[in-house]
Amino acid sequence: MQRDAGTGNRRPTLEAVAAHAGVGRGTASRVINGSDKVSGKAREAVLRAVAELGYVPNNLARGLVRRRTDTVALVMAVSEDAVWDEPYFSVLVRGIKRGLAGTGLQLLLAIAQSQPEEEQLLRYLTAQHVDGVLLTSLRGDDPLPRRLEASGIPTVVIGAPTGYDPVHCVDVDNRDGARRAVRHLIGQGRRRIATVTGPQDTRAGVQRLQGFQDALAEAGLTPGPVAHGDFSADSGVLATADLLQLDPELDAVFAASDSMAIGAIRVLKEHGRRIPEDVAVIGFDDSPIAGHTDPPLTSVHQPLERMGREMTRMLIARINGEPVARPVVVFEPQLVVRDSA
Question: Which of these, 94, 142, 107, 95, lies nearest to 122 by C-alpha position?
Fold first, then answer.
């Protein structure tokens, strides 16, 4: 028998369970590991023996046999400051955690901003420490998803980078969301509409700029000034200062994230602009903070919690070797109108 290091008491072994149930060790193992290749009578006997003896499976040993760790990683290719400061990540993690509820899988959070950090993380992930990987905030032609897949690690991406078309991906229709935002501004009578873009080596950044341009072209309006940000509030501050230099008479700003929109509001107020009377502002994400800004922020809603649950469902199916009916899921955005526009 195994000895409990904390109490000194002997713990029942799998062999003891099998003997108590009157079955072979293999039968007892199949029951405990959830196999359906046993008779109902044998299953009942083993489960009764487990309860009577107080048997607790050795999860480490089981994992080695099944080649499973019961752990999945969420890899965020951003700075630590972004993870803690940007509302996007907290909502996404909540959705993922809810998607994992009741599955027995644990979530490991990993941050990799630099190439050396990514190399170190790749070595860890491919050394059988996790069963699958969720990836977010990848940029450009990041090799991480390809290298994970080549190593046999199931992956699912949320928001693909520009240089990679993932087979399994969850996203929102970024282009349509931006179109809806700018159409609303045009419908409010705004004609000098500027934008703060997201990074142009992310699909979200590129597509939200395209949606901005689409809506202006539809209305026959000349595109307003464009300044580039990185989705952070600080970049929204710098970009909006540039926009005001490019067009001091602008009457609307579409920012490609709520954080950048909040930065834009701050600068506009510092320059004496009233919101929305002088300049209307719309963000993207509809993060929890959007309803608490001054004034409350009009924003494009992307259902991040649902997206987190969906990518988790997709990853679990891949880990279990099950077919994924919809390997690419794109959610429809909605414009949530508040006082800023």
Answer: 142
Of 48, 66, 84, the last residue of a domain is 66
Name the nearest CA neighbour of 186 among 236, 269, 251: 251
pLDDT value of position 229? 96
Structural domain boundaries enclosing 240? 174-302
Calculate the CA 101 to chain-centre distance.
16
Indicate if 98 and 109 belong to the same structural domain: yes
Amino acid at 237: V
pTM of the shown model: 0.78
Phi, psi at residue 199, to the nearest 5°?
A: -55, 135
CB 204 within 8 A of CB 176: no
Task: Output the six-digit token pair for 193.
Answer: 């509409």
Distance CA 268, CA 244 (A): 8
167-208 pLDDT, tens per residue? 999 999 999 999 999 999 999 999 999 999 999 999 999 999
Instruction: Please report, in angstroms and rounded to a whole number, the separation of the first and last CA atoms in the chain.
Output: 70
How far does Cα 136 stand from its chain's mean position?
Answer: 5
Give the CATH number of the domain where residue 326 resides: 3.40.50.2300
Same domain (yes/no): 201, 296: yes
3-state secondary structure of 106: strand
Give the integer Cα–Cα distance in Å for 93 and 292.
Answer: 21
Residues whose CB falls within 8 Å of the CB of residue 185, separated by 6 or more in sequence, listed in order: 193, 252, 254, 280, 282, 341
Q: CA–CA distance from 65 to each of 143, 189, 316 (Å)?
A: 31, 66, 19
Q: How many domains does the chain have?
A: 3
Q: Would the pLDDT of 277 be above 90?
A: yes
